[in-house]
Design goal:
This protein has 5 helices and 14 strands. By secondary structure, it is α+β, with helices and mostly antiparallel strands.
Length: 267
């Protein structure tokens, strides 16, 4: 499973955005009102397609995400490595999670039976995800955005074109989220996330609140991960067929459901 990272709150990341330019405060820039309007935008998302440029510790990748609320999701990550281009694809088709890794000299496909591991409340929460797509582990795009708003103490600044929310992590809120998501999570993992990603800066369009990107790091002056959303489309009437998946010809998928269950999610 090269290139696939274990789902642990240590890296449950999500990736994160371009540093936002400083905004000059304007009238009608009240944080609580803006957060509520953004939450209403998020709550109205039924399907979505987005492209993002990811940067993490000097590495860059291109990410695409397509989803239908609540349980269809397709993620792809393209990265150039010294050995050539790597393309990783994860598809949740409602029954299985498919994991395809294309390397310059080989292709590997694995499959996880979702009913064995997930719940309706967390339809994507298995032990494998794609680091660098811009999503949390176990959440789709709108859910990720809502959680980010809920676990950081954010203050708004506004310009004519953009709204920027920034601030430190709310440790009790984050711990409550983490405990509800994975009760057996290790305290050291939670502490590591808080230390490394203790500050969030997230930017939305002033008109309509479409997200343009976000940045996370130990502090405002120390960005660790950035995501620049280059194209965001919502509620365009995607069909479930978008999430059909078949392994490439000649590739026999490996079913790893039992291995995932036996190993546990936080090992």
């Amino acid at each position: 499973m090269r290139g696939l990272l274990r789902t642990s709150l240590a890296t449950f990341l999500l990736l994160i955005a371009t540093a936002c330019a400083a905004n000059t405060p304007t009238a009608e820039c009240e944080t609580a009102t803006i957060e509520e309007e953004i939450r209403q935008w998020i709550a109205g998302i039924q399907d979505y397609e987005l492209q993002a440029r990811i940067s993490f510790e000097g590495r860059e990748a291109d990410s695409s995400i397509t989803g239908i609320h609540p349980d269809r999701l397709r993620m792809q990550l393209e990265m150039t490595t010294p050995s050539g281009q790597t393309i990783q694809t994860v598809v949740f088709d409602g029954k299985y999670q498919w994991i395809e890794s294309r390397y310059p000299s080989s292709t590997q496909v694995s499959r996880i039976t979702l009913a064995e591991l997930t719940t309706p409340a967390r339809p994507f929460d298995t032990s494998y995800y794609l680091m660098g797509t811009g999503l949390l582990n176990g959440e789709g795009f709108p859910e990720t955005m809502a959680i980010l708003l809920s676990v950081y103490n954010l203050e708004a600044s506004c310009s004519d074109e953009y709204v920027t929310l920034s601030g430190p992590i709310n440790i009790p809120s984050f711990n409550a989220y983490a405990a509800g998501r994975r009760p057996q999570g290790q305290p050291s993992i939670m502490e590591g996330f808080i230390t490394k990603f203790g500050h969030l800066q997230i930017e939305f369009a002033r008109d309509g609140y479409e997200i343009s990107g976000y940045v996370m790091g130990p502090s405002e002056a120390e960005p660790a991960l950035t995501v620049d959303f280059q194209d965001v489309r919502t509620n365009e009437g995607l069909g479930a067929g978008v999430f059909d998946y078949s392994p490439p010809p000649g590739i026999q998928p490996e079913d790893i459901t039992e291995a995932v269950k036996n190993e546990g999610l936080d090992n």
